[in-house]
Q: What sequence folds into this?
């Protein structure tokens, strides 16, 4: 019998335990129920299945993404190819445009050359027409002049014209340069004549008709005059013929004589109105001239 009042020796208890730790683990494992273990395996299987599904989904997603990236790469490649084609087309278009511009510039240059040549030919044609008209006019003038020349052969020197019972020399030839009034008079005097005296209506009409028929329309009127034997050197405004006879009837143009710039010598000009044929002009001005001499007796 134990003494209930005596404490139990802990040392004895430690040396002789009722269960060891291994025995306790066996007791604990033996005490677990079979249903709990089964549930544990099911949960593990489900977790693995879910993980497998997640991995499959990730794999599918990565595949789709890779496919998308691959498709994008092909798209970029296609776009690059199209850009290259467009660039080549653009370059070809630019080259064609430049060639067209060069061709256009060449054609414009050729067109300008043709235009200039056409203007040149047109000008030449007009010059030929003017020359032809001048020749026709000279032919007509010579035809009208022939009777006076034939008559002049009987009464005048060769090259002189017989009109109104007087022999006249008209310096129509361009081989004779224009001269001053005094030089023109010297030309006449060397041939036994003097500058013409036009002191009647009949003489004025005859002389005017003849110089009008030889008029060159391309020459300015101021260069188309012919010196006659009339001047006012001695007394301004008092016009006298070479023999000293005062002018009684003149055939002056409107406003003439005006002595504009010391104009002391008279000249007759080819004008339609033959009663306005005269102008006064400076005596040193260079013009053509008309000589006059008495006819010789017919043989």
A:
């Amino acid at each position: 019998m134990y003494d209930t009042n005596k404490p139990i020796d802990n040392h004895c208890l430690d040396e002789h335990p009722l269960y060891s730790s291994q025995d306790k683990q066996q007791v604990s494992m033996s005490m677990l129920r079979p249903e709990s273990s089964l549930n544990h395996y099911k949960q593990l299987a489900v977790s693995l299945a879910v993980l497998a599904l997640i991995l499959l989904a990730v794999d599918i997603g990565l595949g789709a993404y890779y496919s998308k990236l691959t498709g994008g790469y092909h798209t970029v490649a296609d776009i690059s190819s199209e850009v290259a084609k467009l660039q080549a087309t653009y370059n070809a278009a630019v080259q064609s445009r430049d060639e067209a511009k060069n061709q256009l510039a060449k054609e414009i240059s050729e067109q300008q050359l043709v235009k200039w040549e056409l203007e040149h030919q047109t000008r030449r044609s007009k010059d030929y027409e003017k020359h032809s008209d001048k020749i026709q006019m000279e032919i007509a003038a010579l035809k009208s002049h022939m009777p006076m020349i034939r008559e002049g052969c009987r009464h005048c020197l060769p090259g002189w014209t017989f009109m109104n019972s007087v022999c006249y020399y008209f310096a129509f030839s361009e081989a004779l340069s224009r001269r001053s009034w005094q030089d023109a008079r010297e030309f006449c005097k060397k041939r036994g004549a003097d500058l013409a005296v036009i002191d009647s209506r009949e003489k004025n009409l005859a002389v005017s008709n003849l110089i009008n028929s030889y008029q060159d329309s391309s020459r300015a009127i101021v260069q188309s005059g012919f010196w006659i034997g009339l001047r006012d050197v001695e007394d301004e405004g008092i016009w006298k013929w070479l023999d000293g006879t005062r002018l009684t009837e003149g055939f002056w143009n409107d406003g003439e004589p005006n002595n504009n710039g010391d104009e002391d010598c008279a000249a007759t000009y080819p004008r339609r109105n033959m009663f306005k044929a005269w102008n006064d002009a400076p005596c040193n001005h260079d013009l053509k001239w008309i000589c006059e001499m008495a006819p010789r007796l017919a043989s």
